[in-house]
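Input chain follows. Return C-alpha cells only.
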Amino acid sequence: MRSRPAGLSPFRVSTKTSSGKVLLSAIALPGLSRRPTALTLPANNAGSSMTRSIVVAGVSLELEERGQGRPLLFLHAGEGLQPQRAWLDLLARHYRVIAPHHPGWGNSALPTWLSSVDDLAYLYLDLAAALQLDDAILVGACFGGWVATEMAVRDTRRVSKLALIDPLGIKVGGVMDRDIADMHAMTRPEFMRLAWADPAKGEIDYTQLPELELAAIARSREAFAVFGWKPYMHNPRLKRWLHRIDIPTLLLWGAQDGIVSTSYGTAWCDEIPGALLEVVANAGHFPHWEQPEEFADALVRFIDSK
C-alpha cells in the first residue's frame, strides 16, 4: 500500500476561462479520489483558454485547454506542466491543446490503486475516448513521453501522429549501465546543470512560493517517484514492443540533455519504425521550455508534413 504525504493542506479546484471568470469552484484534498461534479464546457472556441476538471475511470483530472482546431494531447514532464511558460500558447496558435495534470500533480487526484505507468496509459486512452478525440496528435515530454509511448504500443486508433520529447521509459544499455540519470539522488543544483543548457532559465525561487504551492510541488515529486522508482524510470519490456507503434513518430531531443543523452534518443529512433530524430540546439532535457519557439516550429513542421 502506498503511503501519502502527511500534513498537506486542502487546495481549491477552480475552472476559469481566458477572461478569468470562475465557472466552478470546489474544495478538494490532495490525493483523494472523491468524485467531483464533472464539468462540460465548449472546448473549441477561437482563442479559448480554460482550466477544468473531468472524471475519467473514477479519477478526477485537472485539464488545461487552449486553442482550437486539430486536437493535441500533451503529457507533461516529471517537473510538471508549467502552463505559464511560452510553449503552450505557441502550440495553441495551431491546435486545440489538451494538457492534463498527471494524477498526483496539480489538482489531479491520485487514488491508491493508481500506481503504475500502465495505469496512466489506460487512463489517458480512456480520456481520449471520453473527449471523443479523432485524428489527434499525441505529444509527451520526459516522463510524459514514456506514458505516451505506453499508450501508442497499445492503441493508436484516436491518434495519427506521435511526438516524444526527450522521453524516459526504455532500457538500452547493459545491466550495469545507467541510461537515465538518477534525478532523485542528486542535489537540485546538480539536476539543473544536467537538465538545462542554461540553468538560469529554469531557476525557481522557492523562498517566494506560498505554502500551498510548495506542498503541491512536494506532492508531485512523490508521485513522480511512485510511478518511476523501481525499476528506475523505465519499463524493461517496453523496448521490445516499440515496433507496434504504427503512426509517424518524431523524437525531439535537447542537444545538451544530461538526463538522457542524444545517443539514448538514437536508440529510441532505431526501435520505432520510420521514426525521425531532430536535435534542438542550446536545450537540455526540456526543449519545449528552454527553446519554445524552436520546439513549436519543429513540432508544427512534423505535424503538417505528409
